[in-house]
Structure formats: C-alpha cells, structure tokens
Design goal:
This protein is α+β, with helices and mostly antiparallel strands. It is built from 15 helices and 6 strands. Strands 2-1-6-5-4-3 form a 6-stranded mixed beta sheet. The longest helix has 27 residues.
Length: 435
C-alpha cells in the first residue's frame, strides 16, 4: 500500500514549506537578538550587540569537534539506510524539531522575568509557528507512538520520525544557547525537581503526557481540528497547562526533549541512569498508548475499529449515479470506512504525483483504505475543496473528476473512475499536483 502523509508530499511542496520554516527561524533569531538588547534594567547601560562573541565561537568549535555529537547524529541519520523513501518525512521532523525548540524554549529566558502573560503568549505563538510552518510534524516521540498505536503510521515511520526528532534535539539546544549567549541569557530545560521521588516523577511525566495526548485527540481529530485558528491555540494552551501543573519533571511531555536536554546540559554525555529513561521515555510512551487506546475505544477507530468481513457491508448502489453520490459524500466526510464500500478486492487505485514523477499503486480493499486514510490525513483543511468538473458516462460506466484543495496544498487533481457491472469501482487513476 502506498501511504500519503503530510510528511510524504512531493519535494516541491515540501521544500517550499521548509524554506518558509527557515525564514521563520531567522525571524525568531532576530526577535531573540532584539529582546536580548532590552534585558538591561532601567538605568543600566544597554547590552552591547555582541559582548561575548568569543564565548559563542568557543562553544561552536567545542560542539563541532565533539566526537559524541558526530557519533550520535550518524546513528540518527543511519535510519535512512532502511527508510530512504521517508527522507522528506525525516527532514520535516528534523527541521520541525529544531524550529519547535527555538520557538518554545526562548520565551522563558527572555520574558519570564516580566512575571506576566508575555511568556505565555510568546510560548503559544511559538507552538503555533513551529507547527504551521513545518506542516504539522510530530516533533515528539510520544505523539509518534500514539499515531503508531492508532494505526496511522507504520513501524518504519515510527523509527524514522523518532530518529529525526532526537537528531533535531541534539542540534537545537546548542543552537538556541549560541543565539542567547551574547545577551547574557541562559536557556533552561526539563529536569526532575529536587526532592521529587522516583514514583512522583514517573506519575507526573506520565500524567502530563496523557493529558497532552487526550487534548490532541479531542481538539485535532474532531471537527475542531478543521478550524486551525481555533485548534492550535487550544493545543498550545493544553501544553502550557501541562507545564504549569506537572512541574515535578519539567515537564518534558516529550521524551526527545527530556533526553536531548540532559545530553546537552551534561556536556554532550547521554544519561546512564535507567531511571531517566523510565521517567522520560517509558512513562510517556505508556501514557500515550493508554490515551490512544481509550480514544480508539470511545470513537471505534484504530485498533478498535469494527472489523467488516465484507468489503461493502451490503452496500449495493445499483447505478452509476448512486455509486458516485455515495463516494463523493464519503470523500467529503473523510470517511475511509465508507469510501471502501465502493471498491472490491479486485480494485486497483493508481496515484501519480506530477512533482516527483512517482507512481504508486494500491490493490485490494485494505490497501485502498490505507491510501484514503493517508490522503485524508493530508487533506487537513477542506474549506478550499472544489470540484469544477464532474462528468459521468453511463455507457462506459466511468466518472471523470477534476478537483483542487489549495487550503491543504493541492493545486490540482484529476480522478478517473472505472466501474464494473455491479457499479463497483475497479480502477481509479489519480493525478495530483501540489502547490
């Protein structure tokens, strides 16, 4: 089966988003610089633009010549040897992680001293910017684990995503500190608070991750998720709430952050204490899995989606128009379960991406369903969905469709459907051109 996720879009569209993310990162760096200049208290001389550049240069040289850095990054990038076709997804997670750390770890050091709402707003803006500009990467192994348990990604994708996230964390923290050092700012990160017992730490990190994942499921996978200006600020508020109310471990609510921060703050040495990995990896992973299973059970999705012994469940349209009406409605509802009722085990869906020249094929109900689930994941915003051309030919039992959804990055798409005598779709040819 081919799987079309947001991270698996053609290079031209992906690179545009990555270039935008790079520009945003530069803008954030400028904001950090300007904020640093204003940290002096009233009556003090302004902070000079580059008071400690020698320290920055020394830190950069030390980082760049540390064999542990090279070894760790090589291990992370090595996963591409078994998943080269996921290189774009790796890049999105890697760069998305760096941008996320830049955007969300600077508000505290620069605005926390104001003791007001500025830090909260800056953190919320950082969460939104990092998510939007990089196309919604996971940037969190707990979220990636949840999507794996929810059967939205494969095991190979899980490996690629987590490796990319860790690589991003290795690079991000030194980068952010290098930006901050000239202005007398020291960044902080998650850690177990003094006096916190091991049991409390496990509970705190696990509970925070559970709350985060339930928030993601409720606000990102329901109708609320279709309204980005509403969804993402709410998710940012959930993250901020977890930070405030589960402070015994930071919290990291992100295994990558917990471990790469410990790696950075200890002088580029990976934690050797097993308790660290239990608190920051095992507890969040279990919490994410529990949240996913509960949500799946409640919504009858993922592993709890009802098994259908028959592909059509008695669905017998009886005419070309009836099949098309059902398919069009199911597509608009983003319901893969309904869509596959129009296909048989002999059906084949062929997709061609014009930007990459790549052709992928899905044969049989299960693979076609996986293809539509991935396509629906790609179509995050249907407000711009249009179908200017729909032509039905009863004689040849075919349908020709031209559609677009610029709000989800699809500039133009064409579909050709061929149906059998029972008006089931036996061939579908899809061509997609991304923005």
């Amino acid at each position: 089966a081919f799987r079309v996720s947001l991270c698996g879009q053609p290079m031209s569209w992906t690179m545009k988003r990555l270039q935008t993310a790079a520009v945003a990162a530069l803008c954030v760096a400028v904001v950090v610089v300007e904020a640093g200049k204003k940290r002096g208290k009233k009556g003090e001389d302004p902070v000079s633009p580059y008071p400690e550049m020698s320290k920055v240069q020394a830190d950069v040289v030390e980082w760049a010549t540390n064999p542990m850095i090279y070894g760790s990054l090589v291990c992370c990038f090595a996963v591409l040897a078994i998943g080269w076709e996921r290189k774009n997804e790796f890049a999105k997670e890697f760069l998305g992680t760096i941008l996320m750390v830049v955007c969300t770890f600077t508000p505290g050091p620069y605005f926390g001293h104001l003791k007001g709402y500025e830090e909260w707003l800056a953190h919320m803006a950082g969460v939104i910017v990092a998510d939007y500009l990089c196309g919604g990467p996971h940037v969190n192994p707990a979220v990636t684990t949840a999507m794996f348990v929810w059967r939205k990604i494969s095991l190979l994708q899980w490996i690629v995503y987590v490796a990319a996230q860790v690589a991003g964390g290795i690079v991000a923290f030194p980068f952010v500190q290098a930006l901050s050092t000239p202005y007398g700012v020291t960044i902080g990160g998650p850690g177990i608070a003094p006096g916190t017992t091991f049991e409390d730490a496990v509970w705190s990190e696990g509970a925070a991750t559970f709350v985060l994942l339930m928030g993601i499921f409720i606000f990102c996978t329901t109708w609320i998720g279709q309204i980005y200006p509403v969804k993402q600020p709410i998710v940012a508020a959930v993250i901020r709430g977890c930070i405030v109310y589960f402070g015994k471990t930071g919290p990291a609510i992100n295994p990558m952050l917990g471990t790469t921060w410990a790696f950075y703050v200890s002088g580029m040495v990976w934690p050797s204490d097993a308790s660290h990995y239990i608190v920051y990896w095992l507890a969040p992973m279990l919490a994410a899995s529990v949240a996913t299973l509960l949500w799946s059970c409640f919504t009858l999705t993922g592993p709890f989606e009802p098994h259908r012994p028959s592909h059509d469940d008695g669905h017998a349209p009886g005419s070309l128009q009836a099949t098309w009406d059902h398919h069009f409605k199911a597509f608009g509802d983003k319901s893969a379960m309904e869509v596959i009722k129009d296909y048989t085990e002999s059906s084949i869906l062929i997709r061609y991406d014009s930007a990459t020249g790549k052709k992928t094929e899905a044969a049989g109900v299960a693979k076609i369903r996986a293809a539509f689930e991935a396509l629906f994941h790609e179509l995050k915003d249907l407000k711009g969905l249009k179908a200017p051309v729909i032509e039905l030919d009863k004689t040849s039992r075919t349908v020709y469709l031209v559609w677009s959804c610029p709000t989800s990055g699809i500039k133009l798409a064409t579909d050709s459907f061929v149906m059998d005598e029972d008006f089931k779709i036996i061939r579908q040819y899809l061509t997609v051109e991304h923005k």
